[in-house]
Design a protein that fits this description.
The protein is an all-alpha fold and about 140 residues long. Helices cover about 75% and strands about 0% of the residues. The chain has 2 domains: about 70 residues, Helix Hairpins, CATH 1.10.287; about 60 residues. It starts with a helix and ends with a helix.
């Protein structure tokens, strides 16, 4: 059986336990509301209620912990979300570095022109624009 189906079945089981819990609480209250109530039966229903409630709480905590893992990108069975997130962040870092390198290249050229060590940029072939266009074309679609 696949992991998502197991999760759904676990949630279905929790739902049934909640129904059992509510029935036990209702029966305990019903017993206590009688004129001649059986304390032993009310205590039995109360014990059943508390036992089932404890079970529901632990199972819901497991489900919440699982969902917390999934939503924060921690690795878990059958998910590529964490890898996809890492790849996307790497693309953003790469683009930032390329942008900074282009800015530094522009400043270097400007500085060299100011000192008379380089011809004006209009005579130089521009390498930064085709590189940017190539970068944009090579990125995967988000």
């Amino acid at each position: 059986m696949t992991a998502p189906m197991e999760r759904i079945q676990a949630l279905d089981s929790i739902e049934k336990d909640i129904v059992t819990c509510l029935q036990s609480a209702g029966q305990a209250l019903s017993e206590l509301s009688k004129e001649k109530s059986s304390l032993k039966q009310a205590e039995g229903q109360t014990h059943q209620f508390l036992k089932t409630l404890s079970h529901v709480e632990s199972k819901l905590t497991e489900q919440i912990n699982y969902l917390t893992q999934v939503s924060t990108g921690q690795p878990h069975e059958g998910s590529g979300y964490a890898s996809q997130k890492v790849l996307q962040m790497a693309w953003h870092r790469l683009e930032h570095v390329r942008s900074r390198v282009n800015d530094l290249e522009w400043l270097k050229n400007k500085h060299l022109q100011g000192r008379g060590l380089m011809r004006p940029a209009s005579n130089q072939p521009q390498q930064s624009q085709p590189q940017q266009q190539q970068t944009i074309a090579s990125q995967p679609a988000s």
